[in-house]
Every structure is written in structure tokens, then in C-alpha cells.
Amino acid sequence: MSATDGEAAKHKTGRNETEEERADRKWAELIQEVRVAQTGVQILFGFLLTVVFTPKYADLTDTDKLIYIVTVVLGAAATGALIGPVSLHRLVSGRRVKPQAVEAASRLTFVGLVLLLATMTAALLLILRVATHDGYVPWLVAGVVAWYLLCWFVLPLLTRRRHTSK
User: Fold this and answer.
1) Is 9 a residue whose pLDDT tops 50?
2) Least C-beta-crowded within 10 Å: which of 105, 128, 137, 151?
């Protein structure tokens, strides 16, 4: 391989790292991302668990109680998906499958983010329904969900499309 070929290969990949080094880097990046999401989902889930023990819960309509139950289940599922990468890493550590573990953990994290989006949407719907019974609540929730989608998925995908070849 000539110096020119080496430069082209380096430019193409952007990094000069082995598969193991790439897996280590991706794992470290993924865990940092998961920490942010885990903190948010755990705080939200903890708050949701306390609602049923408040006096106001008995006054909720059947629809609001159903929304609450769905929200708690979504929060539990999001928590599981976002903690999953840690368990995955612990159970496969030392087995020489880090690239595969990173891929599986990445998928779990993505599922966790989608479940977190659903949890936050349902929680916002419940809170706004209880706080006000106005007909604009669904529109407010839809606006916030559109904002989440823009920030979490649309902008990253546009950036990926614009600045990468994959």
C-alpha cells in the first residue's frame, strides 16, 4: 500500500483504528449517551410510581387512570431497555464479542429512546388532562411530540444524510 492509498483509506474511515478499538470507542460513546437517557427515564419513572399513592389519584377519571397505567408500563419498559446495555455488557464481558455487543446495545438504546418518547408523551397528556380539561390539550401534546421528534430523530437523520455517505 502506498502513502497515497494509506491517506485515502484514513480519509475514508476518518480514523485509524482496529475493529476492537472501534468497538471500545463506540461502547464508551454509547454508555455516555445511555447515562443521560437513563437519568431522565429513572427520574420520570420514579415520579410516576408515586402518583398512585396521592389523594388526587382516586379522583382521576377511568380514562386518566388508563393513561396513567399505560404511562407507568411504558416507563418501566423504557427503563429496562435503557439499563439493558449495562447488563448486556456485564454478561458478555471478556467473551470477545464487543462489536456484536455494541450493536445489540445500540439497538436496545434506540428502543429505549422510542419508549422514553412514548412515556413522556403519555405523561404529558395525563398531566395536562388533569391540570386543564380544555380541548387544546391534544394539540399541545402533539406540538411537544413534534418537537421531540425534530430534536431526537429528524435533525440527527438530516445531519447524518447531509454529512455522511452511509
Assistant:
1) no
2) 151
